[in-house]
Structure formats: structure tokens, C-alpha cells
Amino acid sequence: MADAYWKTGTSSSQRAKVQWPSGGQIFRQVIIVAVVGLGWIGLLVGYLNLTGPSEQVETGPPTEPEAVAVEVDPTDTPTAPPTDTPTSLPIDTPTATNTLSPTPTSEAAVAETTAPAEAGDTPAPEPSPTPTDTPRPAPTDTPVPTDTSIPPTDTPLPVADEAVDVSFAGDVFPILERRCLKCHGGPKDDGSLRIEEGLDMRTHASLLEGSWNGPVIEPGDAEASYLVEQIVSGEMPKREPRLLPGEVRLITDWVNAGASDN
Amino acid sequence: MTPTEFINRLFIALTDIHPIHSMTVHFPIALTAVALLFLVLALWRRNEGLERAAFYNLTLAAVFAIIASLTGIRDNVVRFEGEAPLAGVKIFLGVSLIVLLVVIVFSRWRKPEILWTPATMILYLLGFASSFALAATLGFLGGVILYGF
């Protein structure tokens, strides 16, 4: 009679009388729970000591002011920067000539991907309308991180062991399109574009131009690239899941290889 | 989209695109929460039906905790390449949760009167509360992995 296990011996589901535990019984059970709980905590602490601190999540301090959505009219003149950015910065507003698809023709992509060494030797000579010495909000100006946080600068960047051939159109842009374009080049409900922080990621050229605060990518040097720092620390994408390790590695390898438009 | 296409896309989405762990973890969290609620209601209303419902919910939570653990290990290996943050802590807490749930279910299965026995009532109640606390903590740590802290 397997069903007997589920019965509690009474025909009614309402118990006529419940015998509550006495003080001694409560004390004894609480002691048992406390002893088991302490033993479990001891095990947990021992386990954490064994596994080491590498299990922690990088939680760098916020290094960017709150993102501001800017409506960009394709036919309009450059938009004024927000008041907390240097007013001397020239603002490059996307124009109607910017296309949503940066994917090069297949011939061009093949031609460029067959010469990865060239791309790696010569960083992409993209003319940047923003001066390279543009001041960027220093991390020291931001609120002091808590003791448990790890500054982004301490986070080791993924480094490729060997030369890699990462394509912007084939590997990097799909990640940007999926995870970044919503705020950095995606359409808003009213049809205008959302270019937060002045960073337009719709094309290779606009990505290298950077944001209001300057370039976000240093071709050939991922460690000096603000974009890589932000995705490694998990600051970006804001309020969304972090990029996966494989996605971070692709972007890092692409930047280290010269951030070319291949 | 043809039915075959739809089934193919659904299969690929479930196996290659979507993180299955994110979906399955919600079951043990919800089931342990509802089980605890039913248990408290059972004590309050002296209702054996509610106590039985709590037990069934916790049994289901044990099953889904095992499924969530397996999918978590798979996501760690496949999506995070074995280097998911906090994976070690989550594995420890996940194993603790499964052990706790199995012990509670087995105890209730062997002794159906466990809640109504004064010598075990508090233990049983705290077991339910602890299982919900563990499941909720695991869910929070999952949020930390995805969204930071």
C-alpha cells in the first residue's frame, strides 16, 4: 500500500488537535539546527579557502556618468554635448551617410582576411575628428569603490596565445549589433537614433571615432582601450547581462590585431 | 515558417542559443517558496492537505534542483568555458540544497507525521525555510554573474 505513506491517519484534512513542542523540545531542535548550520558554514569557509579568491566577480567602480540618450536627426547639425563633458570637444554626429550595415562586400572581406599580418602590423589609420588627447573622465573622479570591488585595471585581459584572425564584420560587429547597438546606434520608438554618450557603433569608422570623451579603442592595445575595459569589468552593457568570455576575447583579439575594418 | 522549421529553430534555440540554466533555476526557487508557504499555512490552519501539498512541492523542488544543477554545469562549461564567476560557490550551495531537499523529502516519506510531532516540528519547518533561503541565494548569485554587484 504505497498510498499509506501519504496518509496521516485521519479521515479529515483538519487536525482536531495539534501538540505544540515544549520549551525543551524547541531548544533541542534549535541547537541541532545551529550545530548543523555552523558545521555547514565551516565547510563553506574551508571550501572557499581551497578555491581561492579567483571566484569573485569583477565589480569595478562606475567610471561613466549616467548615459544620456541623444536624439539624432540625420539632417540636423551636430548636437551640443552635455554640460558635464568638455565643451571644446568637436561632436561628430552621425549623418545620413552612415549606414546601419557595416558589412563589407564579400570580396573585400576575403581579401582583407587573407592578410591578417598586415592588419596586425599597421593599426587602422582611421582619421579621427576628435583629438587624441581629449580628456576622458578619470576613474579617480568617480566614487571610491567598496572594499569588495575590484578596480577594472586589476582585471587581467584575455590574451591570445597565438596570432588570431578576427574579422570585424564577421566576428565583432555581430556582437556589437546584438549587445551594444540598442543604445549606441539603435532606433528609438519615435524613429530617431539612440546614440548614448555620443558613441555610435553602427560602423567601423564611427566606432573608432569614439564618444564625446574621446576614442574608446586604441588599435593594437586592448589594455588601453576604454571599450575593452568597460566590457571586461562588466560596466557595459548597462543593466544587461555581461558579455560572455568568448565574446570579450573576440573583441580583445580584434583590438590587439589593430582593430582593422576587415 | 513551416512546422519543421519551427521545431528546428526551437531545438537550436534551446540547445545552442538560450542558456537553459537561467530557465530551470526558477523552478526550485518558486517551488521551495510555495512549499514553505503551504507548510506555514498548514500549521496555522492545522490542515493536513496543505502539509501534503508542501511535501509534494518540495519533492518537485528536489527534482528541479538536480536539473538546474546539471544545466548550470553545462552552461558553465559551454557558455563560460568553465570559468563562470562564482561557479565554485554556486556548486557548493547547489549541492547543499540538493542534499537538504533529499534529506527532508526522505524524512517526510519515512515519517509522514514529522510536522505534527513536537520533537521534529521545528526541524522540519527550519528545513523548509533553509531550502528556500539556499535557492534564493543561488538565484541572487546568478544575478550577480549576469548583472554584477
Helix and strand composition category of chain A? mainly alpha
Overall geometric form of chain B? elongated
Output the number of helix runs of chain A.
7
Radius of gyration of chain A: 28 Å
Q: Helical proportion of chain A?
A: 25-40%
Gist?
Chain A has 262 residues and is mainly α.
List the helices and strands and how they pair.
The complex is a heterodimer of chains A (262) and B (149).
Chain A: H1 23-51, E1 71-72, H2 106-113, H3 116-121, H4 168-179, E2 184-187, E3 193-195, H5 204-209, H6 226-233, H7 245-256
Antiparallel strand pairs in A: 1-3, 2-3
Chain B: H1 3-17, H2 20-24, H3 26-45, H4 48-78, H5 87-110, H6 121-147
What does this structure look like?
Chain A has 262 residues and is mainly alpha-helical. Chain A folds into two domains: 24-55; 71-256, no CATH class. Helices cover 31% and strands 3% of the residues of chain A. Chain A contains seven helices and three strands; from the N terminus they run αβαααββααα. A three-stranded antiparallel sheet of chain A has the order 1-3-2, with no helix packed on it. Chain B is built from six helices and no strands. The N and C termini of chain B lie far apart (41 Å). Chain B has 149 residues and is an all-alpha fold. In chain B, 82% of the residues lie in helices and 0% in strands. Classes of the chains: A mainly alpha (262), B mainly alpha (149). At the A-B interface, α1 of A face α4, α5 and α6 of B.
Question: What descriptors fit this protein?
Answer:
heterodimer; A: 262 residues; mainly alpha; 2 domains; 3-stranded antiparallel β-sheet; 3% strand; elongated; B: 149 residues; 0% strand
